[in-house]
Design brief:
Elements (H helix, E strand, L loop, with lengths): L2 H16 L4 H5 L4 H5 L5 E5 L6 H17 L3 E5 L6 H8 L7 E3 L4 H8 L11 E9 L2 E6 L7 H10 L5 E4 L5 H13 L4 E4 L3 H10 L4 E5 H9 L3 E5 L28 E7 L4 H16 L1 H10 L2 E2 L4 H22 L5
Parallel strand pairs: 1-2, 1-3, 6-7, 6-8
Antiparallel strand pairs: 4-10, 4-11, 5-8, 5-9
Length: 333
Amino acid sequence: MKVNDKRRAMLIQGAAAMAGLPFAARVLAATPEAGSYPEKPIKIVVPFAPGGPTDLMARAISRPMSESLGQTIVVINKPGGTGVIALSEVRNAPADGYTLAFPSIQAVTTPALRSDFPFDMTTDFTGVSVVGYISHLLVINVKTPVNTLGEFIDMVKAKPSAYFYGSSGNGSSGHLAMEMLKDRAGIALEHTPYKGAAPAIQDLLSGRIHAIFLDTTVALPLLKDNKIKALAVPTAKRSPVVPDVPTIAEQGFPGFEIHPWYGLLARAGTDPAIISKLNEHVKKALADTRVAETFKSMGIESGGNSVEEFNQVIREDLKTWDGIAKKLNLKIQ
């Protein structure tokens, strides 16, 4: 900050104090640091491998955001550690808005499952915006002789512990969704965790596992090729991507809801004016026709909420998943 800028800020701060007004609320948006942001490339750290839905979503918004902000945005993949590796990179970076995280809902489910989770998601990070939502689909092999959730539950109950379900990993939203369904339906299904959806799908198609919750982005091509059957979605309302597939709630389990989000986070302590600017440009990116077409083709519902709304989602989800994990006695190492 130049000397004149410092003097100007001090004068404004003094005037605000005399008026009994908080300095941050009056001046932050006008400071040269916030006004000139960004002055160098921005890094978005994705906690998953390249090519997955989280990675593709981050890359989809990075191009229009780069154009509107007038600065390069680089997407970097840091998979592993149930998201901790990527979050650590952001937490250990300066709180200046140049290193951001792009996690999934796993960022709020993992703290409930790992006693050694090293962050407080409400004080170490701040939300920028939810970028998108991807519904899950409860799917089975097309050769399985059932067509509804009720029939599937009856089949599993008829042979307790004879059936297996897969997930893309311990602590994933698909893992938690099935554990919730098992609890509500009173069924026994053995869990087989995989390192990603791809190997789990192969075992589903070969008959080694019998069911899995898949992202719609992954499930839609398999549905079109008639390789799997969709039994239900775990959202409160039917998904616009697969409107003919009923919800779990309407099939006898009222209140059952999981709506996985994917969003942009910054380190806590970042200038609120920078967070606000990023939020504004996320919304601009989501309004871009290129992003809208990409999201539609992938079965992604667009996000774009406010900073406070996203932070409220984070707080509420942390509380919800902590309660679910304790009720179902779920832990991962």
